[in-house]
Amino acid sequence: GSGGKVKQRRHRKPTGPVSKSRTYFEDIGFTDVDIYNLPLSSGMVISRPSIIIDWKAGVTIVVEPNCTATVTEDLDLEIHVENRAKASADKESEDFVDPVKLSLLGHRFMGIAEQMGRTLQRTAISTNIKERLDFSCALFDRTGGLVANAPHVPVHLGSMQDAVRYQIRKLKDSWLEGEVIMTNHPIAGGSHLPDVTIITPVYESGKPTFFVASRGHEADIGGLTPGSMPPFSVNLYEEGMAVESFKLVENDLFREKELRTMLEEAGSRQVKDVISDIRAQVRIRLWLTRSNPLSRRIR
User: Fold this and answer.
1) What average pLDDT score do residues 273-296 get?
2) Is the omega angle on the peptide bond into residue 39 within 30 degrees of 0, that is, cis?
3) List of residues 6+ apart from 179 with CB closer than 8 A
4) 206: left (phi over 0), alpha (psi -120 to 50) or beta
5) Of the candidates 168, 164, 166, 170, the residue with the CA atom closest to the CA atom of residue 187
6) Is the entire prediction scored with pTM above 0.85?
7) 192 neighbors 119 (Cβ within 8 angstroms)
């Protein structure tokens, strides 16, 4: 094991714990610990979680679980840490996370999100996405939790997790492989209405293993003013098309007719451009859902 020494002042009488406290440790959670005041007596051994305080020096020493504190003849406080060999032997256990593998996978996940963004930028046609780069791409785990994102727009990335989880809760088992969900409603984790989110589950062995999602600012989805951001609106519909949950791709078919109808009814002035950009958002998920390179990388 390893250890450290803390010098204390000499004294004549041994000192025991002066009180107890309930303290949280990462490994064992909350537990009762003894509180000691320096100085301590020579030969004293503290073998349980404790806190040692030197009030005059303003120093606090924590004896953590699996550590032992011993007062030497010179009145040094020596702390022995449990040998970590056992932890090394447990590397193959489910709870162990290899830091090297974690770093490699983290960079691979981020690389995939960045590639999604580059593909979206090349295939979209609107100024918002192609030149202003008002879009974001990210990967989410099977519960909808954010795994990795490209360095895109923070306001998108902060709420996309809620958007994915909302659809998981709402659709449950009715969300089938190959289906793509479109949403932009604030109640479903959306920001302002022009930010349209496209979400796709990636399946393996018949179950969704993770989700990919992108959010892009569309040119015009209707509403009172061009651009769909009227500053004087008092109702949501005045800002344009509001979609809580819509299966944009179903049975391997892009439902353009239904999408066009929703945009026209909302008063969109750029229906063709919006549909083209949404198609671009859908397309970036094809290389993941068809070839699933991410699963191969993890293996």
Assistant:
1) 74
2) yes
3) 200, 201, 247, 249, 250
4) left
5) 166
6) no
7) no
C-alpha 276/C-alpha 47 separation (Å) is 68
Place of tokens 């796709």: 200
Radius of gyration of the chain (CA): 29
DSSP string, 26-84: TTTEEEEEEEEES---TT-EE-SSEEEEETTTTEEEEE-TTEEEEE-TT-EEEEEEPPT
Span 166-189, pLDDT tens digits: 999 999 999 998 899 999 999 999
Q: Which amino acid is at 169?
A: R
Dig out the tokens for 128 from the structure. 């918002």
> What is the C-alpha separation between 136 and 206, in angstroms, rounded?
28
Kindly give the residue spans of alpha helices, DSSP state H, lying in the chain.
85-89, 99-123, 127-130, 154-171, 256-266, 271-283, 286-291, 293-298
CA-CA distance, 162 to 145, in Å (whole number)? 8
* Residue 34 near residue 44 (C-beta atoms within 8 A): no
- What is the rounded CA–CA span in Å between residue 253 and residue 230? 34
Q: Are 215 and 125 in contact (CB under 8 A)?
A: no
Among candidate residues 271, 270, 273, 239, the one with its CA nearest the CA of residue 258: 271
The greatest distance separating any two alpha carbons of the chain, rounded to the nearest whole angstrom, comes to: 90
Q: Which residue has the tokens 């859902």?
A: 289
Model confidence pLDDT, tens digit, residues 43-85 = 899 988 999 998 888 889 999 988 899 998 888 889 888 765 5
CB 211 within 8 A of CB 201: yes
3-state secondary structure of 52: strand
At 264, phi and psi to the nearest 5? Answer: -65, -40
